[in-house]
């Protein structure tokens, strides 16, 4: 058995990839679904167990596979950190050059280290993530003369890989849970997971679907605000702030996709304070033995709010998607 037969690539038939395409894989996926002690029907999908420590590897294996297949020589990505860490590793595996645009001073230490470790060329942008992404789009997406392949989540392959989180949750539980809680930043992942559940229904594996619950940090909650106002246009946040640097994003490109996931699934958006994120991080670390970075603790903070407000019940099965590993951000204090 090769590494391509496990994890994400065992779902090759559900991925829109031609048979002859050779995966660029590091064995991503097959992450544990961990039952929590604190609540009976509560589980953590621990994406920190991926090769570079975040769920980004699921999408990156697809996107870099395609980049290599079409003959790209370089890849580029703007990132709050995890996407760049993942891109750097998969580009190294594929023998491609990797260029990453990062918001100066807003990327957790571990993630920056990974990008450099794997040999990416790092460009630090004086501005936040939104500005870094704008620069990448202007230079490499709108300008199609370049031969640099863009890997941001405007790239549809990323979402195709990330939808396998849904397939694994279904297989590990043996059924579709009532709720799936996801931290929302650039807003692609919640849609990707929803797409996965929708496809399980379409192919007749199940007739059920979960509610998708998106959680943002109070200081960086444009999708929450837009959802609450039932607005047709994104209500952006000009100066996003939060301890959860992974999701410190004011103008998420996939905002409409995220709202589609939430609306179609009868779910909802929540915003939580940094203090409750850190409290949740501490609970996961000290009571459950699960080490996550701040963004990945947001779902537990959101779950607590949802329970309190009666938006969901204790008797419902809920999966919290813990998107990134604790070692990503060793400077977090609580
Ligand atoms: N959790 C972690 C740990 C992340 O790194 C991200 C996104 C998210 C949640 C949110 O996922 O953007 O699909 O809504 N990180 C991106 C990056 C922005 O550049 O690494 P999303």
From TrEMBL:
Keywords tagged on the record: Amino-acid biosynthesis, Lyase, Pyridoxal phosphate, Threonine biosynthesis
Pfam family, one: PALP
InterPro entries: Ser/Thr_Dehydratase, Ser/Thr_deHydtase_PyrdxlP-BS, Thr_synthase-like, Thr_Synthase_bac/arc, TrpB-like_PALP, TrpB-like_PALP_sf
Positions of pyridoxal 5'-phosphate binding: 82, 185-189, 323
Domain (Tryptophan synthase beta chain-like PALP) ranges: 24-324
A GO molecular function held by the record: L-serine ammonia-lyase activity
SUPFAM superfamilies hit by this protein: Tryptophan synthase beta subunit-like PLP-dependent enzymes
Top EC class of this enzyme: lyase
Modification N6-(pyridoxal phosphate)lysine, positions: 56
Coiled-coil ranges per UniProt: none
Domain of life: Archaea
CDD domains hit by this protein: Thr-synth_1 (cd01563)
EC annotation from Swiss-Prot or TrEMBL: 4.2.3.1
Family: Belongs to the threonine synthase family.
Protein name from the UniProt record: Threonine synthase
Species in which this protein is naturally found: Thermogladius calderae (strain DSM 22663 / VKM B-2946 / 1633)
